[in-house]
Structures are given as C-alpha cells and as structure tokens.
Amino acid sequence: MPKHVRLISLLVVCSLWSMPRAAHAQALLPHTLQLDAAKLEKQGLSLAQEAAQLAQFQQVELALPRARLATQLAPQNDKVWLLLGGLHLQTKDFDGAIAALNKAKTLNPKNADVLFALGSANFQQQKYPIAIANYQAGLLLKPNDPEGLFDLGNAYFVTGRLPEAVAQFNKAVSQNKKFWPAINNIGLIKYEQGDVKGAIKQWQTAVTIDKQAAEPLLALAVALYTKGDASGELRLRQQGLKLGESALRIDQRYADLDFLKQNLWGQRLLSDTKKFLELPAIKAAPGQS
Fold first, then answer.
1. CATH dotted code for 183-289
2. Segments making up each domain of the chain, as ranges
C-alpha cells in the first residue's frame, strides 16, 4: 500500500461549526467588537469548508488560498490550521505543512489528528524515528484509530521492525475488519519472508473486501503465476494472468516498478513482478504498451 498520507476528512472540517468559540478576553471587549470577531470567525470557518470541499475533488491549488485566509480569520481554531497543514502535505510542501501543524498542536495538544498528520509529514521526509514518535503520541490519545495504527505499522515496516509492523496492521484490522490496506501490507511482509501461502491468503482477503483494489489484486496475480510457473500448474498461471490483466485495467500505475517500490513492495515481490510484467499476455493487455 502507498506510504500513507492522512488526508483531512471533510467531516473534521464540517465539525468546525460545532466548535465552541473561545471566550478569552471577550468579556472585556465592546459588544460591537465581539460581534465583528464572531463574524470574522464564521467567515473563516466557511472558507475552511470551501477549501475542504475543493480538496475533496483534488483542487488543492484552489483550496490553499482559502485555507490560508481561514487561518487569518479564525487563528485560534486548531482544526483550520490542521486543514492548512493537510493541504500543504498533499502538495509536498513539508515545511509549510509542519509549520501549520505545529501551530495547530500549540493551540490543541490533545488533537490526535494533528499528531498523525505530523507523523505523515515526517514519514515522507524519511524522518522515520520522529514519525514513529508522532504516531505513537497520537495513538495515546486515539488508541483505536485504524489509520493511525496503519501509519505506525508502515513506519515500523520501512525501518525493518517487521514483527511490530504486523502487530500494528493486525490491530488496525481488529478495529476495522474491512481495512484492506493493512491486510495487504501483511501480505507484502509475508511474501518477503518466504511465506507465499500466507501472503496469498492475505491478498485474497483484501480483494474479497474490495474487488477494485488494484494493489492486492496485482500482488495476488504475481504470486499465483509465480507459484504456478514453479510447480508447472497451468491453472495457477492462467488465473494469475487473468487477475493481472484486471488489476492493470483498474490502475495502470501498478505496471511501474518504481511506483510499486514507493508502495513498499519488497525486492522478492518486485523481482517476480518484473518478470510477470514482461509476459507477452500482460504486455498485450489493454492499456499496456
């Protein structure tokens, strides 16, 4: 599964409307100034919602200026800063993301989503020990968060702490039985460890949950074809080819070995996939050159 980037949920931003407004010093302000401040904050939250909706449709460049203005109009709202940080993450502006997220953390140290987002920024910068620390801190606040558990598992995965990674992935699945990315990544680890049967079982489970999940579908295809090629079982080879064609129809990016490596595929699986992608039947599949 791709190195996970926690996207800011639209629901989080919509909940901005229910956030209690800070009362600090307002009792000392004239009534007109209180109304003006409340109006500005309301405008800021409205802009934040617009930004979140734009981001939902991948219009991040349009969302960013609205989010920046929202932080100026509602500067004491940690969720607005979290939104801005999340948008910077999506554009790979890690300095901007971390600055916004640290501001959110200062405003509300108990916001686990801020810590998870900081972990994602650190992860993408390959600062894995810091990422792990942020994920762990977030999980102290939200111990049953499937995505947080998955993120921590990925950080353990890339640092070679495989038993700990599998434990976190299993915890994520225990919280959400349909969270197939964690199941998929357990398969990636098992395959590299030589447990092909165990990996196949994980990928079959993932595909059962989401038939349009191209990653476990392609991994399953490669594993079945490779197993059939070694044992001489024509049925397995044919099944692998069929699944592989389906996976690449769903998402052609998975025909790119560099993309697979970014998705945490290990050397054993990458080597088998390279051979698989060079098969005439796969090269001739619709959409493949």
1. 1.25.40.10
2. 183-289
